[in-house]
Amino acid sequence: MRIIDVSSAWSLANRDSGPTRQVVPSPLATGHHGSYFSEVVTIIRPLVGTWSLLLACLVTIMALASVQKVVFGLIAFAIFWVLAVFPAVPFLPIGRTAGSLLGAMLMVLFQVITPDEAYDTIDLPILGLLFGTMVVSTYLERADMFKYIGKLLSWKSRGAKDLLCRICVISAILSALFTNDTSCVVLTEFILKIARQHNLPPTPFLLALASSANIGSSATPIGNPQNLVIAVQSKISFGDFLIGILPAMVAGVAANAIILLIMFWKLLSVHKDEEDAGASVVEEEYDSHRFSPATMSHFSSLNSQEWNSHLEAVSVQNSPQVQILRNRSIANASEINGVSGSNFDSARISSVSRDGTTGAASLTKEETGPSNSSAAVDTLIAPSERKSKFILKWKRVLWKSCVYIITVGMLVALLLGLNMSWTAITAALALIVLDFKDARPCLEKVSYSLLIFFCGMFITVDGLNKTGIPSALWDIMEPYSHVDRASGIAILAIVILVLSNLASNVPTVLLLGGRVAASAAAISNADEKKAWLILAWASTISGNLSLLGSAANLIVCEQAIRAPNLPYTLTFWSHLKFGLPSTIIVTAIGLTLIR
């Protein structure tokens, strides 16, 4: 079956079925194909309006792929989608990662794509960039960077409204540099504690964290997974990406904060004396809240810094040099205090017979002898311990400084336009070598399940593309989604917002990216870049629409529920009441500023 031109189908949909109306023939319906298309038009003509458009779409789809491939491809993608959006679905609770592999396997098993095509769809540069940034985040956590960020939140806080604005700004910046997931993992429990100290409901602060993290992550290619995909596929440099979206991100964060203040003004209006207790929470928070930014999971024990310090202190106490000093000091103390048993006993008995109090005093001195001996030991050992602790302290300061320098160097290299994947991997390996320890503990914190999820998703989405359905749907929308006019940008943004909340943002980018860019490239090269940036902006901000819109929202929700001694449930409806207006307003503002 051949393809019916979509513009002709749309023309049919907008014409009535009166006998005097004529259908404009497709350009394909010329020459020897005329009789064929005349028959098709005769059949379709009574089905005017929406039904004719839907029928034309079905004909187009069937022309692009076989019925078997379309049906089986839809089944495989539907299984992937259900498990990606609802990982704990009762009839198959295997999770997102296994769900993506299942979808990929079904695409190959149903012969929608071949095994070789499946391997070719896996984008190694994206996986390398994800791996490198996760390793760098792990070492930054060990270097206490997130602890300092927590202190910054409560430093000289001027009230609840000031705290909310700080959360918006800091989470946005942190997300742009180290992904939105990391920002939410780092700050959720701390925000719960600071809100409890302020005697405030946590909802506005948790919403500020999740929404600002999503908005902030839009500014850089390393801010979120969909931006990684866009940056690699579009070959837009880190600097151009940042310059293109940064104004929209700044305006979006400001607009989001204003919306939060308007919606929760009364809840944020508290007395000043209730708001001065927040600074004391920071140390307690980071002593109790242990996490891995890469895996978004908690430790049940000490974090790496405290554990290393503890082991170092134990090793100093048990070192051979300290034991030798301790033995020598004890021997010297015994010699100093050693007297003959008979002389000591006779002197003590004589003293007791003369004056009970004097004897008691002598006995007291005797009993306190061991403590004096212990004090002598401590005095003798203290210089050695102080020297060891001083050396260890400065070694750690030097190591932390190097971690920060390497991280800044990575960001500078990205801004200079170096290959993003290898830049991140190089920074990660530099930190591993600099640590001069077995890298297994840090590498175990990398979220390999996320990398596997991406592999399965690449294959599943490519299989759906092979069915021809995405192309057919885009052919319908493409004439009305040109980025060189305001109406086209608005329609494109709406399509991205809806599809991102239905199919998730990364699959949406994989499905639409090449098509949107090709359509814009037909206009100009500048419009092609703008189309990629619009896709990045809209697909990221769409995550704020509902609680299920992004992984960052779910992380905040789960972290809040599981917080020790401070559990709190962020409901779907409380998020939607804020997320719907915020998403629409922030998206609209940003679209006017993207260049």
TrEMBL record:
<feature type="transmembrane region" description="Helical">
    <location>
        <begin position="43"/>
        <end position="64"/>
    </location>
</feature>
<feature type="transmembrane region" description="Helical">
    <location>
        <begin position="241"/>
        <end position="265"/>
    </location>
</feature>
<dbReference type="InterPro" id="IPR004680">
    <property type="entry name" value="Cit_transptr-like_dom"/>
</dbReference>
<feature type="transmembrane region" description="Helical">
    <location>
        <begin position="489"/>
        <end position="512"/>
    </location>
</feature>
<feature type="domain" description="Citrate transporter-like">
    <location>
        <begin position="85"/>
        <end position="541"/>
    </location>
</feature>
<feature type="transmembrane region" description="Helical">
    <location>
        <begin position="98"/>
        <end position="114"/>
    </location>
</feature>
<dbReference type="GO" id="GO:0015105">
    <property type="term" value="F:arsenite transmembrane transporter activity"/>
</dbReference>
<feature type="transmembrane region" description="Helical">
    <location>
        <begin position="576"/>
        <end position="594"/>
    </location>
</feature>
<keyword id="KW-0812">Transmembrane</keyword>
<keyword id="KW-1133">Transmembrane helix</keyword>
<dbReference type="InterPro" id="IPR000802">
    <property type="entry name" value="Arsenical_pump_ArsB"/>
</dbReference>
<protein>
    <recommendedName>
        <fullName>Citrate transporter-like domain-containing protein</fullName>
    </recommendedName>
</protein>
<dbReference type="Pfam" id="PF03600">
    <property type="entry name" value="CitMHS"/>
</dbReference>
<feature type="transmembrane region" description="Helical">
    <location>
        <begin position="397"/>
        <end position="414"/>
    </location>
</feature>
<keyword id="KW-0813">Transport</keyword>
<keyword id="KW-1003">Cell membrane</keyword>
<feature type="transmembrane region" description="Helical">
    <location>
        <begin position="448"/>
        <end position="469"/>
    </location>
</feature>
<feature type="transmembrane region" description="Helical">
    <location>
        <begin position="532"/>
        <end position="556"/>
    </location>
</feature>
<comment type="similarity">
    <text>Belongs to the CitM (TC 2.A.11) transporter family.</text>
</comment>
<keyword id="KW-0472">Membrane</keyword>
<feature type="transmembrane region" description="Helical">
    <location>
        <begin position="126"/>
        <end position="142"/>
    </location>
</feature>
<feature type="transmembrane region" description="Helical">
    <location>
        <begin position="70"/>
        <end position="91"/>
    </location>
</feature>
<dbReference type="GO" id="GO:0005886">
    <property type="term" value="C:plasma membrane"/>
</dbReference>
